[in-house]
Design brief:
Number of strands: 0
Largest sheet: none
Helix content: 55-70%
Order of helices and strands: HHHHHHHHHHHHHHHHHHHHHHH
Number of helices: 23
Strand content: under 5%
Structural class: mainly alpha
Protein name: Transcriptional regulator
Distance between the termini: 36 Å
Shape: globular
Radius of gyration: 23 Å
Length: about 450
């Protein structure tokens, strides 16, 4: 901790607004630190030091801001908390690139840190920001489209349609691996592929049509890597890769991928209980969809908007978005890919989340059953998370035996998955069953349940 410049009245005021004690804030900060791999043991005495003007070490000011943001359901910055951002620890900042740098330059810095064993830990412990400065939809038009289409990649670069197809295949492969094995599977391999192959191709392609296509596919690859990190509960670095995907989509003039990425950020915000941010991002993503967007993409974006509106208690808006998603789902482009197909199972899962948010637990349970019926056997991660939601709904309805049977299914589905999100769901279910441990069947599950 640093020296004490004076009393921190801003933090004191926020504690009053949050109706938190010093001990409650300390617990929330410890939990936020655990999400990014930091083992913290702050208590009310630590908070007392902060209130008297002590500056905590790097990353902790952001964690305090994040904890208060979740509690107050609005963005709280480190400055609003009364802390200054540390300047001296370059390693703690992770990848450094100017905010106005090109998408390729920022991606280079990001994957450079991610593949460096000395800097990777700092990057992976990046705190999530409740109010990040995300790129707006402003396509970078470095050359008129008609002229660019005639511009080949520079001669001798070895970059052409083959490399574009290779990256497109990688998007499919890594997205499939996420569904089948979880976000921890092959994540470092994807980082290395971006650093060693994709970034050099992007640099050499220049301002050509091939360069634009490479940026589009690279944005989608960064999107997949962000989802891997999100599933691994490394929310800050996931947010950085999503932001880079937005930049790459801008430079590729690809509004579809841009809207899909902002939709994913809305889902991440909602999972972290930033309802206002999630709703804003969901609305912006839906508004950004171009008329020519694939119908499956429209369904993907509308379904998340439905959940965000439901969490904001907007019943009519939520149901309207669900209807929009329903009309568009199950339609695919000629060449199916993770960016052109929205499975019925995924839509039903979002329907369940929407109805649950609106208090219709019977409808949510019906949607969960439909989602499980439509799940592909290859989507082990999605199957496990849907099964976990079903257990929660059954317990809430008082169907203990059926909930126990579904918990057994969940433990079977989740076994071997490299997914922190699935692990967290398992721990949550275990706590939910504790009040019923007097039942012999539940005791048996608790004694041998995974994890």
């Amino acid at each position: 901790m640093t020296d004490r410049p004076g009393s921190n009245d801003r933090l004191r005021a926020l504690l009053r607004e949050a109706q938190w004690t010093s001990a409650a804030l300390a617990r929330a900060v410890n939990m936020a630190g655990a999400e990014i791999g930091l083992r913290l043991s702050y208590d009310r005495t630590s908070v007392s030091h902060w209130l008297s003007g002590t500056q905590p070490r790097h990353q902790v000011p952001q964690l305090v801001a994040e904890a208060l943001s979740r509690r107050l359901d609005r963005a709280v910055t480190t400055a609003a908390v009364g802390f200054r951002t540390p300047d001296g620890d370059v390693a703690a900042k992770g990848p450094v690139a100017p905010a106005d740098a090109s998408a390729i330059r920022q991606l280079t810095a990001l994957v450079g840190s991610d593949t460096d064993p000395l800097r990777r830990t700092f990057l992976q412990r990046t705190p999530y920001e409740a109010d990040p400065s995300l790129p707006l939809w402003r396509p970078v038009r470095t050359a008129p489209a008609a002229r660019r289409a005639k511009v080949p990649a520079p001669r001798g670069t070895g970059v052409g349609s083959t490399e574009v197809a290779t990256v497109r295949d990688a998007v499919r492969a890594f997205a499939s691996g996420l569904d089948r094995h979880g976000g921890g599977h092959a994540r470092s391999a994807l980082c290395a592929y971006l650093a060693d192959d994709v970034v050099p191709w992007l640099r050499r392609a220049g301002d050509s049509e091939v360069g634009r296509q490479l940026r589009r596919e690279s944005a989608r690859l960064a999107f997949v890597l962000a989802r891997q990190y999100e599933d691994s509960d490394m929310q800050g670095v996931a947010q950085r890769y999503f932001a880079n995907a937005l930049l790459l989509a801008n430079e590729a003039e690809d509004r579809v991928t841009w809207a899909m990425t902002l939709r994913a950020l809305s889902s991440q915000s909602l999972a972290l209980n930033h309802r206002g941010v999630a709703l804003s991002q969901g609305e912006r993503a839906f508004a950004a969809l171009p008329p020519e967007a694939p119908t499956a993409v429209r369904s993907f974006v509308a379904a998340q908007l439905a959940v965000a509106r439901a969490r904001a208690d907007d019943r009519d808006g939520a149901m309207a978005a669900l209807d929009d998603a329903e009309r568009a789902t199950d339609r695919a482009d000629v060449a199916p890919s993770p960016f052109s197909v929205y499975p019925r199972a995924a839509l039903e899962f979002q329907r369940a989340q929407t109805l649950r948010g609106l208090g219709d637990l019977a409808g949510a349970s019906k949607a969960v059953t439909a989602s499980l019926a439509h799940r592909s056997p290859d989507d082990r991660r999605g199957h496990a998370l849907t099964c976990a939601l079903r257990v929660q709904l059954l317990l809430h309805a008082g169907h203990l035996e059926e909930a126990s049977a579904n918990w057994r299914s969940f433990t079977h589905l989740g076994a071997g998955l490299q997914s922190a999100r699935v692990d967290r769901a398992g721990s949550s279910l275990r706590r939910a069953f504790l009040p019923y441990r007097s039942q012999a069947s539940v005791r048996a599950l608790l004694s041998g349940a995974w994890p």
